[in-house]
Amino acid sequence: MEVDHLADERSKAQFDVEEMKIVWAGSRHAFQVSDRIARLVASDPAFQKDHRARLGRKELFKNTLRKAAYAWKRINELRLTEEEASRLRFFVDEPAFTDLHWGMFVPAIKGQGTEEQQQKWLPLAHKMQIIGCYAQTELGHGSNVQGLETTATFDPQTDEFIIHSPTLTSSKWWPGGLGKVATHGVIYARLLTNGQEHGVHGFIVQIRSLDDHLPLPGITVGDIGIKFGSGAYNTMDNGVLRFDQVRIPRNQMLMRVSQVTREGKVVQSDVPRQLVYGTMVFVRKTIVGDASNALSRAVCIATRYSAVRRQFGSQKGGLETQVIDYKTQQNRLFPLLASAYAFRVVGEWMEWLYTDVTQRLKANDFSTLPEVHACTAGLKSLTTSATADGIEECRKLCGGHGYLHSSGLPELFAVYVPACTYEGDNIVLLLQVARFLMKTVSQLGSGKKAVGTTAYMGRVEQLMQCRCDVQNAEDWLKPSIVMEAFEARATRMSVACARNLSKFGNQEEGFLELSADLVEVAVAHCQLIVVSKFIEKLQQDIPGKGVKNQLENLCSVYALNILHKHLGDFLSTGCITPMQASLANDQLRSLYSQVRPNAVALVDAFNYTDHFLSSILGRYDGNVYPKLYEDAWKDPLNDSIVPDGFHEYVQPILKQQLRNAKL
Amino acid sequence: MEVDHLADERSKAQFDVEEMKIVWAGSRHAFQVSDRIARLVASDPAFQKDHRARLGRKELFKNTLRKAAYAWKRINELRLTEEEASRLRFFVDEPAFTDLHWGMFVPAIKGQGTEEQQQKWLPLAHKMQIIGCYAQTELGHGSNVQGLETTATFDPQTDEFIIHSPTLTSSKWWPGGLGKVATHGVIYARLLTNGQEHGVHGFIVQIRSLDDHLPLPGITVGDIGIKFGSGAYNTMDNGVLRFDQVRIPRNQMLMRVSQVTREGKVVQSDVPRQLVYGTMVFVRKTIVGDASNALSRAVCIATRYSAVRRQFGSQKGGLETQVIDYKTQQNRLFPLLASAYAFRVVGEWMEWLYTDVTQRLKANDFSTLPEVHACTAGLKSLTTSATADGIEECRKLCGGHGYLHSSGLPELFAVYVPACTYEGDNIVLLLQVARFLMKTVSQLGSGKKAVGTTAYMGRVEQLMQCRCDVQNAEDWLKPSIVMEAFEARATRMSVACARNLSKFGNQEEGFLELSADLVEVAVAHCQLIVVSKFIEKLQQDIPGKGVKNQLENLCSVYALNILHKHLGDFLSTGCITPMQASLANDQLRSLYSQVRPNAVALVDAFNYTDHFLSSILGRYDGNVYPKLYEDAWKDPLNDSIVPDGFHEYVQPILKQQLRNAKL
Ligand SMILES: Cc1cc2nc3c(=O)[nH]c(=O)nc-3n(C[C@H](O)[C@H](O)[C@H](O)COP(=O)(O)OP(=O)(O)OC[C@H]3O[C@@H](n4cnc5c(N)ncnc54)[C@H](O)[C@@H]3O)c2cc1C
Ligand SMILES: Cc1cc2nc3c(=O)[nH]c(=O)nc-3n(C[C@H](O)[C@H](O)[C@H](O)COP(=O)(O)OP(=O)(O)OC[C@H]3O[C@@H](n4cnc5c(N)ncnc54)[C@H](O)[C@@H]3O)c2cc1C
């Protein structure tokens, strides 16, 4: 009989968990799809989680190929919708070439290809008759895309482009799926025609033969080697690629925006450049969604284990204290729980933003683009950094046992952290946000209206002067008070930075010199966005007993924890007083007590299967210790009682016979 | 010919690097030993670094056994001193059972064994005729040592103890070296005699036969499985151990402090209990030293690579900007460089503290013990947390390439992080510090003098009122001003917390409720210790051109960065004004400019060989790109051009033949 060791925790919950699951999933429909596909994956032996850390790179990779093929087979057999297929890949939970094929290659062609190109390439891609990757980064250039060195030289004689890697540092480096699998890639290269440079453009290049999978002539390609962690992202074949004068037909340059004519002239099409931003918003909303997925997963493990783990405080031989009852544990864990929910809400809002921007682009309305670009860049940076740190904090919250691979947390960390780097290094992105904010501030007097997530800056005069109204701890529960404090902080920091910048003769020099401050301004602005979107969400009707109340608590925890962590910002700009800061702290403590009885139910609402979590510490039933014990014996080192190497290397030490030993 | 790509950087240094190497090593002697042994290890083919991430667990472990045996052989052949032997193990750079044997087993016997026991066991251990481990933690109890469940019941009939594991959770779990190698262990168990409990004590227990290495009757032992990362700490056989009524002679209880007589009576020896604290201080000073080792290693890699890496800012086709020139990069990197030096200085001071406390213990002077205990607990926590976070920040500072295993940073992180957990969970330790601080505050009026690192609290009245004297940015370079600000902050936070505590009827309840605040008080106190020890060091004469000046800059960077990061503390307690905070920031920026030309030389001063660093990004000669490229091809996935699994799993997708494929 299976015992639920966490049943007691679950019975304490003060809200309807089933309804919360729907909030988490986004809609009843989304919940049902997710739930059904999760079970499907978990119950299929072919998708069983391997002990990835025990596999060598080749075995690991081969097994990923197997799972990817099997997933594609099932997707077709079951005629899954796009939504269902994507959930299936999510629950299979193993990075694979298919991620880049669907997530970058196909969108790049959709976003940058002409109608004709789309008609030619998309059906092939959709049936996976070709497999694509996205090859932008080179050994020498990542962040600075304009610095890419690969060249695409137009040869009017043959109506072809010659793709070439002129230097070692121009080798493509990092693209996922490239190393061993992709047959094609969208390759970014510097366009040269008639002896002139025309910036970086994308080209569809075939890399491998569709017959024998060998690299085409002039192409050198391989895997770049092992990455962080065991298992983790090593199931992916991030690749290196060099071109030696490889020729492709002219119509394989992605020409939606710029075109090269038969004569080698570069002409702009009537499709506006800005259209490509649509893809960027799409990718970033996915990344923010992934952040809430990864963080919630770590929080789920740490929360359940913190309720199982007991340490100290036993009274007269009774049970010891559950570590989740320690305020220090709560002070580290609950803000992460709150962040997981907050990022979920923001991700949902970004879905709306994406739809909105797509419609505007169709109507040739580009007015919101700069703001949308800054906002999504900032949210990508904020949520991925917080998630990476949060996963590691969850691991530490599990004490020693969190360090075991079987806790699930080390691999989750290793597989997640590159999100801070790819699709824009987080610091580079924040600098872009800061640049936009400085521009917004500089135009405040000019009559140009601050829009979207910067609209609050329109109230700059009020926000520069307002005084926080908090008199007692509960005042910090009022959304209007929290909003004003965050808006005042962001505004005052922006204005102060703008003033400091204006002291420099050369704006660009000033920007470089003050960039560390500017990053902090950007962070303040982005945190405000998260808080405001969470608060907006709570102004809607949310059904289910106690559900809204829980979300309100989490929203307050999120905001007040940030206020505490960035107290210097709030105090130095005079947004709040030290006394008010101390009241915020009191309120935060009391919120922790309100979250406490609901904590396990709040992570149950993520609806993760044990298969997906793949964590002994995070098991739904809390049956941690017997399972840890059982699992230990499966380690290869336990195959024999006396370890391989004992006779050669340990015995001679013990017997003092090392002198003659061959080592 | 080998080119030094960093030669230009090195020529910019404004100080004598050779002299700085001696400061870093601690003394000319220490430098020479270290330098000699580092070269010895680096040049010996038997110590070549394997590509650990490519080895399966068994191969990996066997290879560690080989290296450990070879190291021991060389130590004996070369008749190395203890200092030299320990440096050798350090530079071999692979966690092994020998770490626990020398680092925990031997010290435990020295610290807790009687003269007689030491005479019996130490010679065996010193010759490695037995190999020992340290088995305290159990599946169910780590932090709470008093909660351990293993029992040692005295049987007066046979004059033996019966060691037993009564529950699953009483299984020993985590001890390094236990899993596969140790023949003996110091086992902690709950002493039972005459039906009475007498708390937890240490026992020397033989685990495996010295003949065939099989576990002795009644003993179940094995490895607990794979841990964080690839390679990393997986070279260690952390173990699980269960006892089924295992009998050991009475004289194998470590009896320096408490003894069990032939009749089963527990008597205290005339050796004071406090003596065991000596070992604790010893272990913690080692951990702080290790923190500076690990952090400096990461910083060395990130600094060199940041000088090699160029991105953006090329003017008219010239070279792009080295990323180390970006202020955001400096703002992340230089405080870590400063921390590495700061922790080094603190580690050195702890050597003195250890000598001091040992002498006092010998003279039955226990007056400084509580303070020393708190101070070393706090420094262990502070330095290990900062180092773990710092390594990961260094990885991120390297952009995408930092994510490659060959950057050296992922493995360094994975191998280092448990330092935050073992030898006392960092939060649990900070709570102990806070407890001590609250006691100190409560006794301030009573005439009891605050000693050692809390001496500043004796000036509580002054520190509660003082006003910071800073008028312009350079004032922040004055040690007295920095010290006062840090002392005032720690004092005011302590006093405020003590006041809040006193509002609770039950002190213990108050302590639990306010524990998150208390942790912050402890951190403030520990940061003050680091700053003050660094400042004290600079009051000494330090030879070498420019050396002292560099250290002064780093000391200021360390202090002002903390001030900025914890600005809320300083402002809310009124220690400084917002204007002064802003001046501190200005000063910090200008310090970065002063550190910049010296950065590469400052990491050269760590004197790490390329062998030890094992990082392509951190290579001394900066020849990063060709070596990354070369290394990629060695990955097993590149053994064949078409990957294993292609024909079964990829071909059928491309050929639309998946339906019939067997997966
Ligand atoms: C797991 C993984 C998967 C990837 N997948 C792909 C893929 O499929 N396709 C693809 O094309 N690429 C891929 N990449 C590459 C990725 O997009 C780049 O690594 C990323 O853009 C960062 O660029 P970089 O590595 O050049 O970092 P760098 O720019 O070299 O960053 C190094 C440091 O310099 C700093 N820095 C750089 N510029 C500035 C500046 N202007 N101001 C201040 N600081 C600065 C950064 O903050 C960072 O600290 C992948 C990378 C990883 C790790
Ligand atoms: C790599 C590694 C090597 C090790 N080697 C050895 C060895 O050689 N020998 C050996 O005996 N042991 C060893 N250990 C075990 C190690 O000493 C313990 O893991 C450590 O003491 C932490 O205890 P724990 O795991 O029980 O954590 P827990 O105490 O269970 O911690 C879980 C959480 O509870 C919190 N918590 C616990 N108590 C309190 C409290 N009173 N107040 C507030 N919060 C609290 C912690 O902060 C943490 O967040 C090793 C561990 C590791 C990871």
Automatic annotation (TrEMBL), chains A, B:
Pfam families registered for this protein in UniProt: ACOX (PF01756), ACOX_C_alpha1 (PF22924), Acyl-CoA_ox_N (PF14749)
Record keyword Flavoprotein present: yes
Main location (coarse class): other
Catalytic center residues: 423
All residue ranges annotated as the Acyl-CoA oxidase C-terminal domain in the record: 479-655
Superkingdom of the source species: Eukaryota
Record's GO cellular component terms: peroxisome
Keyword Membrane tagged: no
Cofactor(s) needed for function: FAD
Domain Acyl-coenzyme A oxidase N-terminal: 16-131
GO molecular function, one term: acyl-CoA oxidase activity
Keyword set, alphabetical order: FAD, Fatty acid metabolism, Flavoprotein, Lipid metabolism, Oxidoreductase, Peroxisome
Domain Acyl-CoA oxidase C-alpha1: 277-438
Binding site for FAD: 137, 176
Any GO BP annotation: fatty acid beta-oxidation using acyl-CoA oxidase
Subcellular location: Peroxisome
Family membership: Belongs to the acyl-CoA oxidase family.
Matches recorded under PANTHER family: ELECTRON TRANSPORT OXIDOREDUCTASE (PTHR10909), PEROXISOMAL ACYL-COENZYME A OXIDASE 1 (PTHR10909:SF250)
UniProt-recorded name of the protein: Acyl-coenzyme A oxidase
